[in-house]
Task: structure prediction
Amino acid sequence: MKNPNSKRKKQDIFSVATKLNKELVEEVIRLSDLHHKTSGALFKTQVPVRKRKSFYSAADWVRAQDSAPNLPKIGLEDFIATLSHEQRIELMDLAWLGRNDGPPGTVRQSLESLVKHARKLYNPGGYASYLIHKPLGRYLKIASGLSPTDIVLDEVEIEMRLGL
Result:
């Protein structure tokens, strides 16, 4: 007989994303955070201040990142390159999920849908370069905190539920 006072262990995202584990994702988060911290500092020194423009384009960020020979993106890019085909797909899916790009439903349903979508788009050489220019650490931290039974809502659904 089960003890009614015993608590069931809450499933985490890695019970659905089975090709990755928490340690691999934590390393990607660490490398991504290092990359973006360094590139932010580099950006301030590499990109000239523009008169009359208070913002910079994504192309400016990429140019600044690519112009630095010692930027930690190499560590992130090399680490992602060591992942298997399926691990890279799940990494992309977790990033999309953390960015709230999944379809509405449970996290499990959303992740399953994203896996199918990522397999259609998979480009072995393109994932690393795509991911290193995203705030991957932030997206993965969000996704890592999800449970398979959590509900994913898109912005329209949230606004409808709030009556906006």
About this structure: The first strand starts at residue 105 and ends at 106. DSSP finds eight helices and two strands in the chain. The helical segments are 22-46, 58-66, 73-82, 85-98, 107-121, 126-132, 136-144, 155-162. The radius of gyration is 19 Å.
